[in-house]
Design brief:
OB fold (Dihydrolipoamide Acetyltransferase, E2P); 2 domains; 5-stranded mixed β-barrel; RNA-binding; about 425 residues; alpha+beta
Amino acid sequence: MQIKDISRYVDQEVTIRAWMYNKRSSGSIHFLQIRDGGGRLQATVVKGEVPDEVFELADGLTMESSIIATGVVREDKRSPMGFELAISDLEVVQMAEEYPLQKKEHGVDFLFTNRHLYLRSESQWVILRVRATIIKACIDFLDQRGFVRIDSPILTPTSCEGTSTLFETDYFGESAYLSQSGQLYNEAAIMSLGKVYCFGPTFRAEKSKTRRHITEFWMLEPEMAYYDLEANMELQEDLILHIIDQVLKVHGEELCGVLKRDLNKLSGVVKPFPRLTYDEAMKKLSGLGSERGYDEGLGAEEETLLSQQYDNPLFITHFPMQQKAFYMKRDSDNPSLTLSADLLAPEGYGEIVGASVREDDLKLLEEMRKLHNIPAESLAWYYDLRRFGSVPHSGFGMGLARVVAWLCGLHHVREAVPWPRTLTRIYP
RNA sequence: UCCUCGGUAGCUCAAUGGUAGAGCAACCGGCUGUUAACCGGUUGGUUGCAGGUUCAAGUCCUGCCCGGGGAGCCA
């Protein structure tokens, strides 16, 4: 019997294998708040209605002790869940030692040093399940559209983008690096399979210390042959809408009840998402009082300012080529711009997707490589893709943690990841 | 790397340069419907580390360590 199915067992005797997460007592009645991984329930132990030894056992239960409780399910409005278990028998599997986490507030440092215990708190229980639903929504969505999942290597010989800092490891006496993107490998795979995606961990050794950054995060990277920028953005819109739809369907109640998320902000998202070119965005920003220079790019403050103008996610397109990676195809109408698009989440959650059309012409790609000072050796195999049946293609990368943070309304992406790795934390 | 704020009981925080304290947790006791239960009591401290100023330092100064928030870069 699982707590989530409790309503089907009213007036029946059931046995629940659970943990204590709180206990309140009124002298002759103990109120045990229990959880079994799938839900939460209040159980009562009433003096006189159970053997004295069972009552004494309940009296001595500590926070987070593991128990097996047997009793009759009752519908009762006085219970926080509407149902409660009238315990008749109780077995203690393990009496927990003094539990470090309390019902009251804690600091960030303490919580993440105790991440292995913090995972048990109700907010984290909701977040982790929303995260799993988002992952499933992504995979279902792409699979239904004919994508093939192709895993990219995590150990790589060199940087895919050449700019960000990489984690270096020893590979039998040579240097290898933890992947920061599977994109280049995806580009090879689409020449066989048409539409592919990889989904796995990526690593950035950037010394970033903000609410939007962690050093290890999961990224969904679809890559599509013959997709131009517009088709690419439409795919993103449908993906985001599918994710929101699934999350609201499965977790709407918990998001609202436990995380206090304003669901109207999510259910109000509709396509098409507004699109601004980089030039238009900079003009709009100066109209909003920003003094950001054209070449300075969009800072976090500017991204927030822009996204606050809309209820929907917002595409910024056609970034100057100096600001973007070497493989991005330039706009034939204005070669100083790239065929690129960043998707900014509403409410200041920042960039959740980065997309571009990839340069499919070998000569133009080589020009860009030189401009970006990337060594030619590392790209030999990649250049082959432009020699043997090159086609226009595009793709994007979506940061899972940021999407989870946005949908759950979290203050920091570390809350959206089971075991966050940050600049200052790799334990536990 | 830079800017900024902080480090005092297990946790969250107080304490004009002058006797280190509260709430929660834990422990003991009370309560037959609790909702972060409540009420009474008890226990709990090398004030991050090392120096310095002073009659006197948690408090002022210097250096270091650790953490939070932010910048740049990015998803």
